[in-house]
């Protein structure tokens, strides 16, 4: 795989299309040292970004929560996002808008730093191995916890929140798993390292954690809507790890993960059942339909 700093084409950077290799961030940028950085992850299907406006609105919400004022309007960012996928000729891929504080100050305070914005895009297939999306991925249970909601801006897509996700995923991969299940500060089931989680019970109903200390994903909300349109009951509630034995199916949802079945969580086994397959097919049909519209 080509390293991301060695790729070609253009990146939208502070209002201009800049050659990929010429986009530079100074080593003393506040965003690098103090995680004053927010971002989004968006999918491109058939040359169009799925739920672009919702992602951009969340980017601005994340920035506001972090005390960052983006020097562009949401409409300008939407247009820039569409412009860069057209420039890069991305048909089915990924878009990464990112906002960070610059290098004018180097300390905790960053009131006078310049706010930088970049949008990059590239062709990208399945987040997980396609074979695993059929068989189901395997999760361990992380030793790290999602922090209490009064300790972090938990409802943002801010870079600092992902530090423990990287630690968790690396540990999972060392143990032979694909990803890691994370619990919250009260030891309830929360999410995977970069995706929300759902469970199916023996009655064909779905259960998913209440997103009160982690991100309420756009894909999560979309899948809930799809399930309800099929008259599938969805219970948003606190779920304890000991309840894993009561579920027969499990899957993740996320912009990158889409709908990905889970076959194993630690010592618990799940089936890739028809309901999960149907939800995945319905989700893919929706994103393709939205692209064509």
- The H-and-E topology, N to C, reads as EEHEEEHHEEHEHEEEEHEEEEH
Mean pLDDT: 96
The second-level CATH architecture of the largest domain is: Alpha-Beta Barrel
Q: Give the proportion of residues in helices.
A: 25-40%
The fraction of residues assigned to DSSP E strands is: 25-35%
Would you report the number of β strands? Answer: 16
Text of the CATH class of the largest domain: Alpha Beta
Low-pLDDT sequence parts? none
Distance between the termini: 33 Å
List keywords for this structure.
D-amino Acid Aminotransferase, Chain A, domain 1; 16 strands; D-amino Acid Aminotransferase, Chain A, domain 2; alpha+beta; 2 domains; 293 residues; nine-stranded mixed sheet; single chain
Question: Brief description of this entry?
Answer:
With 293 residues, the chain is of the alpha+beta class. 28% of the residues lie in helices and 29% in strands.
What do these coordinates show?
- The protein is α+β, with helices and mostly antiparallel strands and 293 residues long.
- The protein folds into two domains: 4-123, D-amino Acid Aminotransferase, Chain A, domain 1 (2-Layer Sandwich); 130-292, D-amino Acid Aminotransferase, subunit A, domain 2 (D-amino Acid Aminotransferase, Chain A, domain 2).
- 28% of the residues lie in helices and 29% in strands.
- The protein contains seven helices and 16 strands.
- It has helices at residues 30-34, 52-65, 74-87, 130-135, 163-174, 218-229, 274-292; strands at residues 10-13, 16-19, 37-39, 42-45, 48-49, 93-101, 115-123, 137-146, 179-184, 189-192, 196-200, 206-209, 234-237, 249-254, 258-265, 268-269.
- The strands form two sheets. Strands 8, 9, 10, 11, 12, 13, 14, 15 and 16 form a nine-stranded mixed β-sheet that branches. Strands 1, 2, 3, 4, 5, 6 and 7 form a seven-stranded antiparallel β-sheet that branches.
- Strand 4 (42-45) and strand 5 (48-49) form a beta hairpin.
- Helix 2 packs across helix 3 (74-87).
- The radius of gyration is 19 Å and the shape is globular.
- The two termini are 33 Å apart.
- The mean pLDDT is 96.
């Amino acid at each position: 795989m080509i390293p991301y700093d060695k790729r070609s084409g253009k990146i939208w950077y502070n209002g201009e299309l800049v050659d990929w290799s010429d986009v530079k961030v100074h080593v003393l940028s506040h965003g690098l040292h103090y995680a004053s950085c927010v971002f989004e992850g968006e999918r491109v299907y058939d040359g169009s970004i799925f739920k672009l406006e919702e992602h951009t609105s969340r980017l601005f919400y994340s920035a506001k929560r972090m005390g960052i004022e983006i020097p562009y309007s949401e409409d300008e960012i939407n247009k820039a996002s569409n412009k860069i996928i057209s420039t890069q000729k991305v048909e089915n891929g990924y878009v990464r808008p990112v906002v960070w504080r610059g290098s004018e100050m180097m300390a905790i305070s960053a009131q006078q730093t310049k706010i930088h914005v970049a949008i990059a895009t590239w062709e990208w297939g399945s987040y997980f191995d396609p074979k695993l999306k059929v068989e189901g991925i395997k999760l361990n249970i992380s030793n790290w916890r999602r922090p209490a909601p009064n300790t972090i801006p938990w409802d943002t897509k801010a870079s600092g929140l992902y530090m423990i996700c990287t630690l968790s995923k690396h540990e999972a991969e060392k143990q032979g798993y694909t990803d890691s299940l994370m619990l919250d500060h009260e030891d309830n089931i929360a999410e995977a390292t970069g995706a929300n989680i759902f469970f199916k019970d023996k009655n064909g109903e779905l259960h998913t954690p209440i997103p009160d200390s982690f991100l309420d994903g756009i894909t999560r909300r979309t899948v809930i809507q799809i399930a309800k349109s099929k008259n599938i009951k969805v219970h948003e509630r606190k779920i304890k790890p000991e309840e894993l034995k009561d579920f027969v199916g499990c899957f993740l949802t996320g912009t990158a993960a889409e709908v990905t079945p889970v076959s194993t969580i630690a010592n618990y086994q799940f089936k890739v059942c028809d309901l999960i397959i149907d939800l995945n097919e319905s989700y893919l049909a929706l994103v393709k339909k939205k692209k064509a519209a």
